């Protein structure tokens, strides 16, 4: 309700376009819900203090029938309090050949979990209703016998496996970041013999995948460039490449309807780039139904519509470069700026990054970045050839003027751009690598003449706030401004605040002496020194942030100000949650505040 992670869940009728009177209605909490049938849902939510983990997420799953109160719904599964959460899901299919399933995940920590599933037919009464007695669920549940760092999914009668580290089963070795499959009946019997269908290399990682009826499309990154590989399910997973992916763009696919014979192999594709608004295309991978008359033997793609441009990208271009980190690792980054950029070290430059939780930062269209930082100051003018004059400020015919700066996105370790090992190489005791990577990109920009310390800013939020907090405290000489949003900063206490306990697998446990020995080396609050050469810094947060919380930003700003450090600024909104913005107006204000602060610090304007 206030932009936080807690949310109310209500049943909505798509035909009537109205909430269902007396329908399912779950009070505000960090709820997960899955339909089992028209009158039964599987729900993980908060009912009392005992229903939550130490990380503040649900730890109990209940089978809730229509008209039943939450308190009366039986608990069909629960996890220990010191685990992160219990997650629920369902695999409901419209075809009669596929068995509907319920799925329960025990998230042991952020990167390790166990998955259990049951066929709904195994808990179905004679009249077709579902049993909700815990004993019947316990008898029907099948736990997938795979290592806890293997992600598990389902597709019809296949079980899919994506290991985070090399998995050596009794018959097969599946590389970290690879993809393997097994028959679900064998999985039920505990006899998993995975077949590998994708193995990554040093430059390529699997980001996602999409099934149609007869094909599997792998959405890959090759040096942070999108690539689509098609596997033919009916031809022993024969491999081909789906053409038409533009450079420096990110693409995502979704099946149209694999259970409709007319569209069984059709897909939607969305592509976007730093300077290109999202474009929706419709394509087919091969014949679905000859009667449809729209499918061919070869893949085809047709552009349906593109979103409107929100800033003037004329004269701007995208480049990809590689910096060298402290240990010699090549770190890719995208640079967006003027075609005729003068490499005189005087270009106001914004360095963005994240570097955590295997999150990949990829090309994408951002009107906020475009208007707030990139487009040139003359972009708000248009040429009126008929009148032989130039006019400005007509918002119906022109695009907003921008500042004409340079924007840089760094793909540092800790992210998922090169798969799980790119992430794990910067976890816990190796955390410093992502900060070394980010500073290496900053140095490369300076060495290439793109910018200089006095004209280089960095910005980040959440884990990205921790990133720029370390730029502030460990590399102050590289930056002229820092914008630090909804951040982790006090790594001695982060596990005791909001959802912080769930991130111990990423950062380490500060209550364990061996862990604190390396955590304190990247805890910005504990790295503040009695010095005056810190760059200007803005800390911004929200009172309603129930993931990280506002406390760490508050105390960091207060400590720096108490030490007499100049140009330390702080802003806190009451609403907005972990994004510090619950609507577009708030988003515009928060981003404008951040960009205005950085631009002023770099240019004096």
Automatic annotation (TrEMBL):
Pfam families in the record = Peptidase_S9, Peptidase_S9_N
**What keywords are assigned to this protein?**
Hydrolase, Protease, Serine protease
| Cross-referenced SUPFAM superfamilies | alpha/beta-Hydrolases, Peptidase/esterase 'gauge' domain
Provide the GO biological process annotations. proteolysis
Q: What region holds the Peptidase S9A N-terminal domain? A: 3-280
Query: Example GO molecular function term?
Result: serine-type endopeptidase activity
Domain named Peptidase S9 prolyl oligopeptidase catalytic: residues: 401-602
GO CC, alphabetical: cytosol
Q: What is this protein called?
A: Prolyl oligopeptidase family serine peptidase
């Amino acid at each position: 309700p206030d932009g936080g992670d807690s949310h109310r869940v209500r049943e909505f009728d798509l035909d009537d376009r109205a909430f269902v009177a007396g329908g399912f209605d779950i009070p505000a909490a960090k709820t997960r819900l899955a339909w089992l049938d028209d009158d039964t849902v599987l729900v993980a939510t908060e009912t009392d203090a005992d229903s939550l983990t130490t990380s503040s997420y649900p730890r109990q799953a209940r089978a809730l029938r229509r008209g039943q109160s939450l308190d009366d719904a039986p608990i069909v599964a629960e996890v220990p309090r010191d685990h992160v959460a219990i997650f629920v899901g369902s695999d409901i299919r419209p075809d009669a050949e596929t068995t509907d399933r319920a799925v329960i995940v025990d998230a042991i920590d952020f990167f390790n979990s166990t998955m259990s599933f049951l066929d709904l037919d195994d808990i179905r009464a004679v009249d077709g209703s579902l049993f909700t007695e815990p004993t019947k669920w316990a008898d029907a549940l099948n736990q997938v016998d795979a290592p806890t760092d293997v992600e598990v999914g389902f597709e019809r009668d296949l079980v899919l496996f994506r290991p985070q580290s090399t998995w050596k089963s009794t018959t097969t070795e599946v590389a970290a970041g690879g993809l393997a499959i097994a028959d679900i009946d064998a999985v039920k019997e505990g006899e998993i013999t995975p077949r590998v269908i994708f193995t990554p290399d040093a430059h390529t990682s699997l980001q996602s995948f999409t099934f149609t009826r007869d094909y599997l499309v792998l959405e890959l990154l090759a040096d942070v460039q999108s690539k689509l590989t098609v596997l033919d399910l009916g031809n022993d997973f024969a491999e081909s490449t789906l053409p038409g992916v533009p450079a420096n763009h990110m693409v995502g696919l979704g099946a149209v309807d694999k259970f409709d014979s007319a569209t069984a192999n059709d897909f939607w594709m969305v592509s976007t780039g730093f300077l290109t608004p999202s474009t929706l295309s419709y394509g087919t991978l091969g014949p679905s139904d000859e009667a449809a008359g729209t499918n061919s033997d070869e893949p085809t793609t047709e552009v349906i519509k593109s979103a409107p441009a929100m800033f003037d990208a004329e004269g701007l271009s995208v480049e990809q470069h590689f910096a060298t980190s402290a240990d010699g690792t090549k770190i890719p980054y995208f640079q967006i700026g003027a075609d005729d950029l003068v490499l005189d070290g005087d270009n106001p430059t914004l360095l963005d990054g994240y570097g955590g939780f295997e999150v990949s930062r990829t090309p994408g269209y951002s009107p906020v970045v475009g208007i707030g930082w990139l487009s040139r100051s003359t972009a708000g003018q248009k040429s009126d050839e008929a009148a032989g004059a130039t006019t400005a400020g007509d918002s119906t015919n022109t695009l907003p003027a921008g500042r004409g700066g340079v924007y840089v996105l760094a793909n540092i370790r800790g992210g998922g751009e090169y798969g799980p090992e790119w992430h794990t190489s910067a976890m816990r005791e190796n955390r410093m690598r992502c900060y070394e990577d980010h500073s290496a990109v900053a140095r490369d920009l300076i060495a290439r003449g793109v910018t200089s310390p006095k004209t280089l800013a960095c910005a980040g939020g959440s884990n990205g706030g921790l990133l720029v907090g370390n730029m502030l405290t460990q590399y102050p000489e590289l930056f002229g401004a820092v914008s630090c949003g909804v951040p982790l900063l006090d790594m001695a206490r982060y596990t005791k605040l909001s959802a912080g306990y769930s991130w111990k697998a990423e950062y380490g446990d500060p209550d364990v002496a061996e862990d604190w020995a390396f955590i304190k080396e990247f805890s910005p609050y504990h790295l503040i020194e009695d010095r005056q050469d810190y760059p200007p810094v803005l800390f911004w947060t929200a009172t309603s942030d129930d993931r990280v919380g506002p406390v760490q930003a508050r105390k960091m700003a207060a400590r720096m100000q108490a030490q007499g450090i100049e140009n330390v600024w702080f802003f806190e909104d009451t609403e907005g949650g972990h994004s510090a913005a619950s609507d577009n107006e708030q988003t515009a204000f928060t981003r404008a505040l951040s960009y205005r602060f950085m631009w002023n610090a770099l240019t004096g304007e």
